[in-house]
Amino acid sequence: MPRLYNYSMPDSEAPEFSLQRPVTSALVVIRAVLFSPRRFYLNFSTEGPVREPTVFVLLVAAVTGALTAAVAILSNLLFGEVGADEVGLTALEALLFALLSPLAVGVVAAVYLLSIRTFVGKVGTFREVYRMAAYAFGALILAWIPIVGAFAVTYALMVVMGIAVRTVYRTSLLTAVVTALVSFMPLGVALIWLRVTTAGLVS
């Protein structure tokens, strides 16, 4: 059965992360995801590798985790004393966030794949959706900024992924919105639970 969604366009392929140019290519991908996600996924290759998107996720998570830890430590310095134990715990949280980020993206991909199969049709594979979600994760480069971080998570998990589903699988706006909302709800609950659990462990 032929696939009804887009392949990459030879003349204008979407930019992807490259191990040969990690910093430059990551910045290009992040800019595309943040400012022109529709164009990015319109020319997106569903048949590409998984290794580069996974490394991209690790890189974004490492930068975001480090900046988040730095903001937390600086805030504590401004409003109180910071002990060595607290600094170590904050650094450990940043490290765990980076290391577990590919697994988190895998969970996002699995949830979205189930919704895609339910509302879009018998299309898509876990590999394809993982690649889509991995590059959407680039929006979390802003997650370390207070207040903006919450919007960055919503933008990545719902807005960018909704655009990706609509563009890659050539579905209607309503179908894409329903798919994104149904996927985002359990992911949002899981994020809140994880946040509360982490706060409880720290306190």
Give a written overview of the molecule.
This protein is mostly helical and 203 residues long. It has one domain (22-202). Helix content is 73%, strand content 0%. The protein contains 7 helices and no strands. It has helices at residues 22-35, 37-42, 51-79, 84-120, 126-136, 148-168, 173-202. Helix 4 crosses helix 5 and helix 6 (148-168) runs antiparallel to helix 7. The longest helix is centred in the middle third of the chain and has 37 residues, at 84-120. The radius of gyration is 18 Å and the shape is globular. The model is unreliable at 7-11 (pLDDT under 50).
Overall number of strands: 0
| Number of separate helices | 7
Poorly predicted regions are 7-11
Strand content: under 5%
Our Rg estimate from Cα atoms comes to 18 Å
Oligomer type:
single chain
What is the SS-derived class?
mainly alpha
Q: Could you say how many structural domains there are in total?
A: 1
Distance between the termini: 54 Å
Largest sheet composition: none
**Into which percent range does the helicity of residues fall?**
over 70%
The shape, in one word, is globular
Q: What is the H/E order?
A: HHHHHHH
Mean model confidence by pLDDT:
86
